[in-house]
Design a protein that fits this description.
Length: about 775
């Protein structure tokens, strides 16, 4: 046995390549690469279906019951997908014969095979059998598990194998001669070992690897072989100790992968190491540390600000998933665990154990550029790259790297393993866990494990197909700032046209961020590009955090912002100048503000007559307590007179428990006001995402009861929101008609909190078509 120790990686920074089509600066001097060498039309993966797995629940089960999709496998013909549902203690089956219309085929409860508390941790397919890895542990100190072999056609168990410990992942060799299972025997994060701290290693019993020999197609002939990762007496193996493994007496194997030479790679996540095993002999052939990395220009503080000036120094990679790029190079997703996590992924040379390439900050920059940066996780492990998978499609080898916390898959061309080339981003639902390439059908399946019915966040299986068409995601990205880093953005809940600049729009951040910014968006490109960020300041010139829900760019210069308050009196209109400094604050009238809760101002627009008289129009999201049920207010503020008057707008009704209707935006279209009216629902439950118009009153409202303005449906936006086959977004909140005559709408991604984080910028067509000629 031999062992190799990896040298630490020194400060790895990001790079600006082709308008921030980020590929990152690699370790050991390698430079970012553009795609080259593969001729023919460009091909991209595009999302074709998103299937919420609660729809595949057993008959009679409450649809709000937690049910997840964690790890998935596929039948030999690529038409039946099998996923683990650890939350509900079962596995599920989907028919993906028609990728655009996956169909639930039901589930198999592990309670039928063993105990109600049995938990599936992984799944694989060999021939006509499904191999289900099951955790049956009574406790951390008494770990156990089994492998259930299920005939796919009948869903009958044909055999079980005792694994001798608590299992995690499984891998099958390409020739189907071997399976390998990581027996983790994971640590108890609440336990304190002698002389250590809470959650520390070592915690007996030690983990190991099980090899399953698969001679022929008869599961009754399959046999187990154990690969110990510690000595028979519990002491450290010399190879692990020499490699600098953190605690070699408690290796905790996490993830397994097999190359075409039947070499097994095993990550020891908590121990920051990788072990290589020759499957035919069961010999450990190499052990090396995953090393450390120092990464600069990343966001390291949870402070409500996307600030790419932080750094981490000499942090252990602590890799989770691992995948072979070819028979020599392997790649790790460096999620981290208790001491580390370097916010990227790394390519190792298995012959030397040395780093051949490292993503540095580029993986995190991708999240920022695509509006998927999870500021809530900035102080911890950032994007937390957890999953990685590699497969060849049409002669090109791709690596797929999944971000658990920012809900995306980054796709790379790894035809040259030491110089990965970033190709595209794929948006997912929350907590992408299982990455399953299905190259025989040109598909990629991603299973997501986060399921919170109360927040309308549901676990799903998403399918992507490789084709020649341009992908639907992203629809908007950011360009570089003055330092070359991507402009940080998110929570775009408003839109305004830019006066005299027909291809520019403005948007503004809301309370998802501590400091308000106004963004300039160039829509001449697809995806549209945020080209500038303007900080908003208070009257003293200090940065300010408004909950800005509406924006209007004034022809006279500067902007009106509609600012929502935590209470009714906190709502206000704010006028800022072209430099972003607050110049005027207009509170809600004292007779209106007390009747509002936290759903106040949501949109703002303005008109200016030939005499220069400016009238500001603003909408309230929900009813004022003193108004009739179902009627919300549209406000008219005469700037020179300093007076308010109000008109009514009648909302649609909703019958879904807990749902409510509200207004999200207002903009002037000719002689009418266009508003967004929407429900609070998302995903398959979303029902009302519409644009209506009402007359533009020519003067102030008369005294007395609110005059309800008759409304007219202009456009049902729901089909457009569903056209990209993703999770239908809830917060359709921005609307404007640009100077080029085109209608644009945008969704608020809530700063990636209790939402998938995907932002959808919709190009709805010419104003004359959407609203009719006037």
């Amino acid at each position: 046995m031999t062992s190799k120790k990896t040298l630490p990686v020194l400060a790895v920074a990001g790079a600006t390549v082709a308008a921030l089509a980020i590929t990152g600066t690699a370790h050991a001097g390698a430079q970012p690469h553009q795609h080259a060498g593969h001729h023919g039309p460009a091909r991209s993966f595009d999302r074709v279906a998103t299937y919420p797995v609660f729809q595949n629940r057993p008959a009679g089960e409450d649809p709000a019951t937690e049910t997840v999709a964690e790890i998935s496998a596929v039948s030999a013909d690529g038409r039946t997908l099998i996923y683990t549902d650890a939350a509900a203690r079962r596995i599920g089956f989907l028919d993906i014969s028609r990728p655009g219309k996956p169909r639930g085929l039901g589930t198999l409860s592990l309670a039928q095979l063993g105990d109600a508390e049995d938990e599936p941790t992984s799944v694989a397919v060999v021939g006509r059998y499904v191999l289900v890895v099951v955790n049956t542990s009574a406790s951390y100190t008494d770990p156990s598990g089994r492998l259930d072999i299920i005939e796919l056609a009948t869903r009958k168990r044909v055999r079980s194998l005792d694994l001798g410990g608590q299992p995690d992942s499984i891998a099958i060799s390409a020739d189907e001669r071997y399976a390998a299972i990581a027996i983790e025997n994971e640590r108890d994060e609440e336990a304190t070992p002698p002389g250590g701290k809470k959650g520390d290693l070592p915690q007996a019993p030690a983990g190991f690897v099980q090899i399953i020999d698969l001679p022929g197609s008869n599961p009754h002939r399959w046999t187990l072989r154990t690969v110990p990762l510690t000595g028979a007496d519990g002491r450290a193996l010399p190879a692990l100790a020499a490699a600098g493994i953190v605690e070699p007496t408690d290796p905790e194997p996490e993830y397994v992968t097999i190359n075409r030479r039947n070499q097994l790679a095993v990550t020891l996540q908590e121990n920051n190491g990788i072990v290589l095993v020759d499957l035919p002999t069961g010999r450990i052939t190499s052990v090396f540390s995953a090393g450390t990395a120092s990464v600069t220009r990343i966001d390291t503080a949870k402070d409500g600000v996307i600030d790419l000036t932080g750094s981490i120094t000499d942090v252990p990679r602590e890799p989770d998933a691992v995948a072979w790029l070819d028979d020599r190079y392997l790649a790790t997703a460096n999620e981290g665990d208790w001491r580390g996590g370097t916010r990227g992924w790394t390519v190792f040379d298995s012959r030397t154990g040395r780093v051949a390439w490292d993503a540095g900050n580029s993986f995190e920059w991708l999240a920022v550029r695509h509006g998927l940066h999870n500021e809530d996780r900035a102080g911890k492990k950032g994007t937390e790259p957890e999953g990685i998978a590699v497969a060849e499609y049409n002669g090109i080898r791709y690596a797929f790297v999944g971000s658990e916390r920012s809900n995306f898959i980054a796709v790379y061309d790894v035809s040259k393993p030491t110089a990965p080339v970033f190709k595209q981003m794929l948006a997912t639902t929350n907590g992408p866990e299982g990455l399953l390439p299905i190259p025989s059908r040109g598909l990629l399946a991603v299973s997501s494990e986060t399921d919170e019915a109360d927040a309308n966040v549901r676990a799903s299986v998403t399918l992507y197909q490789l084709g020649k068409a341009a992908p639907g995601f992203p629809s908007i990205v950011s360009g570089p700032d003055a330092t070359g880093a991507p402009i940080g953005w998110g929570a775009l809940g408003a839109l305004s046209a830019a006066p005299k600049q027909p291809h520019l729009l403005y948007s503004v951040t809301d309370a998802a961020y501590a400091k308000t910014q106004i963004f300039t968006i160039d829509v001449r490109r697809n995806p549209a590009v945020i080209i500038k960020a303007l900080p908003v300041r208070d009257e003293r010139g200090e940065p300010v955090g408004y909950d800005a829900e509406g924006i209007f760019a004034r022809p006279q210069g500067g902007f009106w912002l509609a600012v929502e308050g935590a209470t009714g009196p906190g709502n206000k209109l704010v006028r800022v100048d072209a430099a972003g400094v607050t110049r005027q604050v207009v509170p809600l009238p004292a007779d209106v503000a007390p009747g509002l809760g936290k759903q106040g101002f949501e949109g703002v627009t303005a008109t200016t007559d030939k005499r220069g008289r400016e009238i500001v129009w603003a909408v309230l999201q929900r009813e004022v307590a003193t108004d009739p049920a179902g009627v919300v207010r549209i406000g008219r503020y005469d700037v020179s007179a300093g007076t308010w008057s109000w008109f009514g707008y009648r909302l649609e009704r909703t019958s879904v428990p807990g749902d409510s209707m509200g207004l999200s935006e207002v903009t002037v279209v000719g002689d009418r006001l266009a508003v967004i009216e929407r429900d609070k629902l998302n995903g398959p439950a979303a029902a009302v995402k519409r644009i209506y118009t009402v007359e533009l009153p020519t003067g102030p409202a008369a005294l007395g009861p609110l005059r309800v303005l008759p409304k007219r449906l202009a456009l049902d936006v729901l089909p457009a929101l569903r056209a990209d086959n993703g999770w239908t977004q809830e917060k359709l909140e921005g609307l404007t008609v640009a100077g080029n005559g085109q209608v644009y709408a945008i969704t608020d991604n809530d700063g990636v909190q209790d939402a998938t984080g995907e932002t959808v910028l919709l190009r709805l067509g010419p104003s004359a078509k959407v609203f009719g000629r006037r």
